[in-house]
Write a structure and sequence with these properties.
With 94 residues, this protein is mostly beta strands. The protein has one domain. The protein contains one helix and seven strands, in the order αβββββββ. The strands form two sheets. Strands 1, 2, 5, 6 and 7 form a five-stranded mixed beta sheet that branches. The protein has a two-stranded antiparallel ribbon with strand order 3-4. The longest helix is centred in the N-terminal third of the chain and has 8 residues. It is elongated, with a radius of gyration of 16 Å.
Length: 94
């Protein structure tokens, strides 16, 4: 892709670390498939970093029009294990 950061700053200025995998335009709709760019995430409960993926799923974020076209953002989201035995949270979503 071209200037990915410019696209995100324009459309979703409050979302960081997203990588666009594919952008398509069909029948007046812009479709963006994306995923998070970081490898590890921190558990919101204990703060420990984790790399171990539990599962993945696609999430569709709120649509915002661009240039009068409908936009569909399909974000691949990973669910991780928290490996800290002292933490009550067992899984977390990025």
């Amino acid at each position: 892709m071209g200037d990915e950061q410019g696209l995100w700053d324009l459309v979703w200025p409050d979302v960081d670390g997203i990588v666009a995998d594919e952008v398509g335009v069909a029948e007046g709709t812009v479709t963006i498939d994306a995923h998070a760019g970081q490898r590890a995430v921190r558990c919101p409960s204990c703060g420990e970093s984790t790399l171990r993926v539990h599962s993945t799923y696609k999430r569709r974020l709120a649509d915002r029009p661009i240039g009068g076209r409908r936009v569909v953002l399909r974000l691949m989201v990973r669910r991780f294990f928290c490996d800290n035995a002292a933490c009550k949270r067992r899984t977390l979503a990025e």
